[in-house]
Each structure stands twice: as C-alpha cells, then as structure tokens.
Design brief:
Rossmann fold, 7-stranded parallel beta sheet, 16 helices, 13 strands, single chain, 374 residues
Amino acid sequence: MSKGIVLLAAGGTGGHVFPAEALAFKLKDRGYSVHLVTDSRAERYAGKFPAEEIHVVPSATIGSKNPAAVARSLWTLWSGMRAAKTLIQRLKPVIVVGFGGYPTVPPLLAATRLGVPAMIHEQNAVMGRANKALATRVQGIAGGFLPEGGGAFPEKTVTTGNPVRPAIIAAAEVPYTPSHTGEAFNLVVFGGSQGAQYFSKAMPTAISLLEDALRLRLRITQQVRPEDMEMVGGCVAQLEMGADIAPFFTDMAERLAKAHLVICRSGASTVSEISVIGRPAVLVPYPHALDHDQAANAAALAATGGAKVISQSELSPEKIAAILTAVMNDPEKLAHMAAAAKRAGKPDAANLLADMVEAIAAKRTIAEFKRTRA
C-alpha cells in the first residue's frame, strides 16, 4: 500500500525536470506514489519520469511591462491556481515539492493556501524568481548550491545538493581513463536549449584550427539546435572527423561517462551531473542567464579544481583550439581535474532530499530535521 501521494511541480526544462525525476525514483522506492505538475515543454522527458500521472495546469510568467500582457498573465496564474487547487483536493498529497520555473507557482500557492505541507528545491547558487516568490510560504528550502545557514532564509534552508538521475549514478561507476597521444579523445559539447547556438558556430571553426594529428583523434558528441543541424553537419563532413550531432541525446549519461573533456554551459543540473560522474570541464556560463546564476554555479566547481571557467565574451574559436591543444597533450592534468570534480560531487543528494521531503510531510520542523542529521 502506498504511503501517500507526493506531488512534484517543475518547469518544463531539463534543469528543473531532471532533479524532480531523481527524487521521484527515490520516493517510489520508499513506497510513495508520485504525480508531476509541469507544462507542455516537459513532454520530451515524460517517457522516463516515474509518475503515476502528469498534469498540466495553466501558468505564465510576468515578464512584460505591458499592462494588457500583465493582466493576461495574472489571469492565467489565477486560472492555474484554481486548477491546481482542484487537483490537490482530488489527489490529497502528503506534500507538494516545487523545483523552480513558473509552472510551479500555481500548485505551490494552492498547496500553501490549503494547508498542505510544501517545500522547494533550488538547483542554482542564486535563487530563481519563482522560488523567491514562494520561499516565504513554504516550510523548507533545499539547495543544490545554496549555503546552509546563510542566504535570505537560513532557518529553513538545507544544502542537499542536486539530485541526479539513476543513469548518472550508473555512469559515476565508470572510472576516468586518460587519453594519451595517438588515442581517441572523446569530447562532449552541449549548451541546453538556449545556450547551444554559440557552440554550433564556434566549435567547427575551433576544430578546423587544430593540427591534423589532434583533430583526427577527436570523437565529438555535440548538442545542436534543429535549425543549426545542417550547418554543423556540413562542417563535420568537410572536416572528415568522427562526430555525433543531435538536438537531444537520450543517452547523454553514457556519453559523459566516456568523455575525456566536457565543454558546456553551467546550469545547476549540468554542473552537478559532471561532478558526480567526475569529468573535467570547460564551463562557459550562459551570459543572458537571470541573476548570473550559471556563473555562480561554475565558480563553485572551479573552486575545487574540477573545471575551468571562461566567459563567452572571452572565448573565441582560437582560444578553444588552444585549450584543446593544451589538454589533449596533457592527459595527467585532465585526470587531476576529473578527480577534483568527483570529490565535489554529491551522489547522495536524492536520498537526502527524500529524507527532507518525508520530514516535512510528517510536519517536522527544519530545526528538528537538522538535529537528526547531526
């Protein structure tokens, strides 16, 4: 018999959905039923998400200063909260857990108004707008990078780390094996839905600048937006090199496990996953990220020695080529970075977050929960 329903709410991007998915697996193992509230963008992830049912409620972000647009957004949020209230009254969850993104606002507001225990998880080192709006209303705040005992809500914040998917935990079992002179060098490049365009333009040029001996060693996995596939594919063919390009890889965990170097953005899930697996990285924070959260995430891993951080404004194809030349000729340095990244990883984050969920569902305070961890 189920211990009860846990309702997870997440915006429809991988950065929000993946941590929710990791928690869902843990909660299912512990005997809970899991339901997910999200938006239509999450459909690509839905096949693997262990939810009894996935619900879509109306939601909107208030990003415009146009009065008519603001009014429409407020009406949508009101409609979403009413729909979420009806859903919660029907499901009777023991707790509602939000993972950020504007689709979390209606269900979390509805939960707090109905007196249902609620908490949020913030993946980034800087709290996002949706979570900021909800932070005063919930009983607990779990943080991927948020400092425990610090920030705006020290009394209710617990640093759990970011939960990673079972596929990432499995990939973490694969040891890092350096690539030496003459051996294939696996390079993984990705940038998320918004950040991939820069790499689509910069990487082919950078690779064309490499010496032939290095270029022929490269085996590239690169995430490419659909509209850039033809351009990047043409460059790959012209360079006569081994490369897999696609808008989305369902086996990214396995590809990261085989990587000798990762070049990517620094979203919270990305930084957490490459840390748990333990792979050296060149992190290029997305320059248009709200509150510069990606820069803060990247700095946390760079401080351990597991990554090198370069701003996009300072990164040219020539610099990428120089970095690749240096690291492909220095496998020991990459091995040291891989080990440092792994030491920074938090593979038990999903278990700790599940413990926190159970505590709040049982109406224990965060102070009581912290004492049980001491």
